[in-house]
C-alpha cells in the first residue's frame, strides 16, 4: 500500500513537466500540450491509488484480527493465572485493581495494536521509501530535508522522557479508582446504613483528583508533540521550496521534479509527525503492558507434587507441630498439634480472630504452613494434588458465596455432573425445597450478582444443600447456622447429623453451646 502511494508523486511529476513544457511550447508557437500523455499518466495514477486503497483495506482486516487474538490470549492467560495464584495476593489486592488489569489495560493494548501498530509500520515504510525517491531526484535537496530529523528526534525524546512516568501513574491511579468504586457498589447497603456517602465521595474525589492530575500532565505533554512536529516540518518545507526553485531556474532539475520533491517532503515529515503522535499512545500501551505482565509474573502457588498419592480414604487427620503466619515474619500459630480420629466430630471454639478458620484454611491448603506437617491418613497434604485434596472436603461458611445464576445451578456447583433429581434431593435435605417452591420461578429463579433477592438465611440453606450434594469425606461447618431462625436451625441440625455419620467433621463456632448442639 505504502509503496504504491510513494510512486505516485514521481509519476505525477512527469505529467507536470510535460504540461509545463507544453505550455512553454504553445507560448513560443512551436507545439501543443500533449494531453494524451497526461491522460495516460492520470489513468496510471488512478490505478495505483485504487490498488493502494485495496491493500489498505487488507491491512486493516489483518490488524483487527491480530489485535483481537492478542486480547483474547491476554485475557485467557490472566484468567488461568488467577486460578494459580495464592490467596495471599487477593488479601492485599482489591478486586477493582485486578479487574482494571483484565479490562482497561488489555483494552488499551488491543486498541494500540489495532490502530497504532499499522500506522507505525506504514510510517516507517513511508520514510524509507520517500527517502529513496528523494535521492533519485536530488541528493542536495535530500540533505536539506534530512536536516529536520535530528531536530524532530530530540524533541520527541525530550517529551517522551517526561511524559512516560505520568502515563504509568495514570494506569495505576485508574486501578485504584476502580477498586474504590467496586468496593462502594459491593458494600452499597452497608455504606447507606452507616451514612458513609460523604466519606465515600471524599475518598473518590481524592482518588479522582490524583488521576486527573497525572492524566492532564500526560495528555498535555503528548498533545504539544504534533504542533512542534508541524513547525519543524514547515521549516524543511520552506527550505526545500526555495532550493527547488533555484535548481529549476538553473535547469539542474525539472519543474515536475520540484513539485514531486515538495510532495515527498510532505510525505517525509507526515510519518515522522505520526510517529511522534503515536508515541503517546505507545507510552500508555507500554504502561498497560507493564501492569499486565506484572500480574502474569506474580508469584504462583507452589506446584503440585509430580507423584501425587492416591488413597482409599479412612479419615484420620493429624496436625504435627504446625507453625504459620500470614506474614512470614509474624507467626500467629505456634507449635500446634492435634490428632483427629476417623468419623470424629471436632469443635473449634474461640473468640473472633483466634485462628479457627485459619486452621481449616491450612487443612485445605489455601495457605502453606511455615513449618511442621498436616497429615491425612498418614500422608502429608503436600503429597496430594490440590484438586484431589480439596475434593475430600465440603464447606459451609458463615460468609455465603452464591453467583449470578439459577438456584439449581448454584446448588449444582457442589457437584457439576449431578442430575436435577439429585439437586432437588439435596435441597430437600437442607430444607431449601420448601421455600424455593414459593419463589416466582422456583429452582430456575436467577439470583442477582449480590444474591440480594433472597434472604441471608435462605442463602445459607442453599450453601448447605450444595455441601450435601457434594457428598464429601470431610465436613467443615463455619458458623453454618448463624443466619437461620431457631426452627429451621433444628431441622438443619438433623440433616447435618445424617450428613456427618461416618464422616470426620470440623465445627467452628464462637460459642460452645453452638458446637455442642451439633
Task: Give a written overview of the molecule.
By secondary structure, the chain is α/β, with parallel strands linked by helices. The chain folds into two domains: 65-296, ABC transporter transmembrane region fold (Up-down Bundle); 317-517, 3-Layer(aba) Sandwich (Rossmann fold), CATH 3.40.50.300. Helices cover 66% and strands 8% of the residues. The protein is built from 18 helices and eight strands. It has helices spanning 2-28, 35-84, 87-92, 95-137, 139-146, 148-186, 188-193, 197-223, 225-249, 255-296, 356-363, 386-390, 407-412, 420-429, 433-436, 456-470, 486-500, 512-517; strands at residues 317-324, 333-340, 345-349, 371-376, 379-380, 393-396, 474-478, 504-509. Strands 2-1-4-5 form a four-stranded antiparallel β-sheet, with no helix packed on it. It has a four-stranded parallel β-sheet with strand order 3-8-7-6, sandwiched between helices. α1 packs parallel to α4. The longest helix is centred in the N-terminal third of the chain and has 50 residues, at 35-84. The protein is elongated and about 115 Å long.
Give me the secondary-structure topology.
Blueprint: H1 2-28, H2 35-84, H3 87-92, H4 95-137, H5 139-146, H6 148-186, H7 188-193, H8 197-223, H9 225-249, H10 255-296, E1 317-324, E2 333-340, E3 345-349, H11 356-363, E4 371-376, E5 379-380, H12 386-390, E6 393-396, H13 407-412, H14 420-429, H15 433-436, H16 456-470, E7 474-478, H17 486-500, E8 504-509, H18 512-517
Parallel strand pairs: 3-8, 6-7, 7-8
Antiparallel strand pairs: 1-2, 1-4, 4-5
Helix pairs in contact: 1-2, 1-4, 1-10, 2-4, 4-5, 4-6, 4-10, 5-9, 6-8, 6-9, 6-10, 8-10, 9-10, 14-16
Amino acid at each position: 500500500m505504502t509503496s504504491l502511494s510513494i510512486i505516485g508523486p514521481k509519476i505525477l511529476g512527469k505529467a507536470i513537466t510535460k504540461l509545463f513544457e507544453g505550455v512553454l511550447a504553445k507560448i513560443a508557437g512551436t507545439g501543443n500540450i500533449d494531453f494524451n500523455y497526461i491522460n495516460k499518466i492520470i489513468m496510471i495514477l488512478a490505478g495505483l491509488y485504487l490498488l493502494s486503497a485495496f491493500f489498505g483495506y487488507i491491512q486493516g482486516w489483518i490488524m483487527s484480527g491480530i489485535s483481537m487474538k492478542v486480547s483474547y490470549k491476554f485475557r485467557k492467560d490472566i484468567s488461568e493465572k488467577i486460578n494459580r495464584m495464592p490467596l495471599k495476593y487477593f488479601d492485599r489486592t482489591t478486586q477493582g485493581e485486578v479487574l482494571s488489569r483484565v479490562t482497561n489495560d488489555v483494552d488499551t493494548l488491543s486498541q494500540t495494536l489495532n490502530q497504532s501498530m499499522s500506522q507505525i509500520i506504514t510510517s516507517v515504510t513511508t520514510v524509507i521509501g520517500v527517502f529513496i525517491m528523494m535521492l533519485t531526484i536530488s541528493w542536495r535537496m535530500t540533505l536539506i530535508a534530512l536536516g529536520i530529523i535530528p531536530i524532530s528526534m530530540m524533541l520527541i525524546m525530550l517529551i517522551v522522557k517526561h511524559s512516560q512516568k505520568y502515563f504509568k501513574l495514570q494506569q495505576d491511579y485508574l486501578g485504584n479508582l476502580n477498586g474504590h468504586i467496586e468496593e462502594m457498589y459491593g458494600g452499597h447497603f452497608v455504606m447507606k446504613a452507616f451514612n458513609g456517602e460523604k466519606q465515600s465521595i471524599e475518598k473518590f474525589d481524592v482518588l479522582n483528583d490524583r488521576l486527573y492530575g497525572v492524566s492532564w500532565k500526560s495528555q498535555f505533554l503528548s498533545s504539544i508533540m504534533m504542533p512542534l512536529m508541524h513547525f519543524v516540518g514547515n521549516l524543511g518545507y520552506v527550505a526545500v521550496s526555495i532550493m527547488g526553485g533555484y535548481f529549476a531556474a538553473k535547469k539542474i532539475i525539472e519543474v515536475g521534479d520540484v513539485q514531486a520533491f515538495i510532495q515527498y517532503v510532505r510525505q517525509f515529515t507526515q510519518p515522522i509527525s505520526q510517529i511522534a503522535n503515536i508515541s503517546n499512545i505507545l507510552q500508555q500501551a507500554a504502561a498497560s503492558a507493564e501492569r499486565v505482565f506484572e500480574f502474569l509474573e506474580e508469584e504462583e502457588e507452589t506446584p503440585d507434587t509430580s507423584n501425587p498419592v492416591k488413597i482409599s480414604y479412612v479419615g484420620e487427620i493429624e496436625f504435627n507441630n504446625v507453625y504459620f503466619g500470614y506474614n512470614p515474619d509474624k507467626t500467629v500459630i505456634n507449635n500446634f498439634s492435634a490428632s483427629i480420629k476417623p468419623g470424629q466430630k471436632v469443635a473449634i471454639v474461640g473468640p473472633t480472630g483466634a485462628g479457627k478458620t485459619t486452621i481449616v484454611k491450612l487443612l485445605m491448603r489455601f495457605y502453606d504452613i511455615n513449618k511442621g506437617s498436616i497429615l491425612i491418613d498418614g500422608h502429608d497434604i503436600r503429597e496430594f494434588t490440590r484438586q484431589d485434596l480439596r475434593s475430600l472436603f465440603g464447606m459451609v461458611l458463615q460468609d455465603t458465596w452464591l453467583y449470578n445464576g439459577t438456584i439449581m445451578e448454584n446448588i449444582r456447583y457442589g457437584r457439576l455432573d449431578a442430575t436435577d433429581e439429585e439437586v432437588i434431593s439435596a435441597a430437600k435435605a437442607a430444607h431449601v425445597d420448601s421455600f424455593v417452591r414459593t419463589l416466582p420461578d422456583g429452582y430456575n429463579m436467577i439470583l442477582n450478582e449480590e444474591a440480594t433477592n433472597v434472604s441471608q438465611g435462605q442463602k445459607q440453606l442453599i450453601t448447605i444443600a450444595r455441601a450435601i450434594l457434594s457428598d464429601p469425606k470431610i465436613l467443615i461447618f463455619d458458623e453454618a447456622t448463624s443466619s437461620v431462625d431457631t426452627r429451621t436451625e433444628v431441622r438443619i441440625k438433623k440433616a447435618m447429623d445424617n450428613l456427618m455419620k461416618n464422616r470426620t467433621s470440623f465445627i467452628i463456632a464462637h460459642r460452645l453451646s453452638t458446637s455442642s448442639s451439633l
